[in-house]
């Protein structure tokens, strides 16, 4: 079957238009509301083509939606049942692989499995990066997570970087929108920017490029900064690096969810996202943004560096409590 490209937002709009004469207005509204969360997730994960949907990604969405909405089991089932209907419809117009709807599963919850951090907390991020620095120094995962945390880049931006985008002399990375050669960034050309790097991150990039980076090019003869033996690391590969590195058992050797580490399914290379404590690149980015805000980096600086408007930053990224914000304001006022 030959798939035809279709972005998630357009797909949902076509689905709702198709169902408009079949279901009651209240049902159509409910479907629109539920699938709106799916479109939001696709946007966060920079999944811009329904052709790329897989069973694993659908499972990742299920876990994300459970956490994001703090859903009761009955509500979660309703959400996933609606998504299954949508995916089955998408099969009929050659937008997704045939029978993909059979992989949309309503969850069977186990104790503790529905608990996930909305973001990677600063102390955990420090533990993860320290572990990578000690045991996987200048590995692809070390580079990817360091960039996501310190620069607050989206996974699409990290994926789009070339070796030539790194300027050691000015200690910076250029984030560039290049759709004509296979890489895009959120917000297109308006998302292009120069990102300043610390000396430590520069040293890490120097060592990766000199000693560890696979010397490959992509299909457009570009030299991807994050490369594999086959070329540019796929976004799914980088997402997997994030899930694998943020499993607590990797750092501590123990499981906070009382699972047997030796037999836990989430220790498999392709199943790290099934760990209740592993986090996505978006959660890592959110944690990095909150970390910078907690360390008194001005909102406008974080906004420009992370390429997100102050309003969106406040609504969706800033996870400081009201008390934390108050104490930060107090430190400024005490000096007046």
Description:
The chain has 336 residues and is mainly alpha-helical. It is built from 14 helices and five strands. It folds into two domains: 8-103, DNA polymerase, domain 1; 122-274, hpI Integrase, Chain A (Orthogonal Bundle). Helices cover 51% and strands 4% of the residues. It has a three-stranded antiparallel β-sheet with strand order 1-2-3. The radius of gyration is 21 Å and the shape is globular. Residues 6-91 form the Core-binding (CB) domain.
What does this entry show, briefly?
Keywords: DNA integration, DNA recombination, DNA-binding. It is built from 14 helices and five strands.
Keywords:
single chain; 336 residues; three-stranded antiparallel β-sheet; DNA polymerase, domain 1; mainly alpha; 14 helices; 2 domains; 5 strands; DNA recombination; two-stranded antiparallel sheet; Integrase_recombinase_N; hpI Integrase, Chain A; 51% helix
